[in-house]
Amino acid sequence: MEQPAATLTVVYDNNAPVSHSGADLSSAWGFSCLIETSATTVLFDTGGDGPTLMHNLSELGIDLADIDIVVLSHYHSDHTGGLSALLDACEPSAVFMPRSFPDEFKTRISERTPVVEVTGPVEIAPGIRSTGEMGLALIEQAITVETNKGLALITGCAHPGIVKIATRVAEWGDLALILGGFHLKDSDDTRISRVIAELKRLDVQQAAPTHCSGERGCELFRKAFGDAYVAVGLGSKLVLS
Asked: pLDDT of 83-95, one tens digit each?
């Protein structure tokens, strides 16, 4: 029997759960997604605070000892705020972060666990890859996960532009899915529609906007992608084949 390439679980998000899993989850502004493959478990971003992150991980039945690697997309506190509490509770082999992070932050974390400074695209674990640093004013990395249908792209906030990030990843393979914050919460319909058109031009197969994508952004993506729109929020679990 063919095994799934990965399972993605949204463990921290400001968007309420889209289904009732039975878990008593707490939503707050920020984002974190657990990526589980047959080879490794990666936590991408850590949300905005430790208590909420740890509560949700517990409610979702996630064994902290299974978390092998942590990846931080960018320096904003709604993506790094839960890291200290997480490191109090488990010992990942490394924390991958853009080299542009403040030296004080990198030093503080390196005293607790190995820090890998990311500049260009790099393999984080088998089948999981960083885009490398992107953007100018605000530097960010995203990650990709290999599946049988192509690459799943996971973004924190997509400050460099979701289209620019997706364009880089499209050079590596087909875009099976994009999930995460698309940074469209303050955008008007014209800009959101232009973003959607560009992503369709890149042949994105499925779209799952959340976090800072905005209600209007999610609604226009839903209309444009139809059955290829994936509604996600806190607690959502996607099994990728």
From this structure: 999 999 999 999 9
- Structure pTM? 0.96
User: Which of 170, 176, 173, 132 shows the shortest CA–CA distance to 152?
Assistant: 176
Q: Note whether residue 1 is domain-resident.
A: no
pLDDT tens-digit profile of 61-116? 999 999 999 999 999 999 999 999 999 999 999 999 999 999 999 999 999 999 99
Domain count within the chain: 1
CATH number at residue 125: 3.60.15.10
Smallest CA-to-CA distance from 64 within 94, 91, 28, 33 is with 91
90: left (phi over 0), alpha (psi -120 to 50) or beta: beta
d(CA 240, CA 218) in angstroms, rounded, equals: 21
Asked whether residue 33 is assigned to any structural domain, the reply reads yes
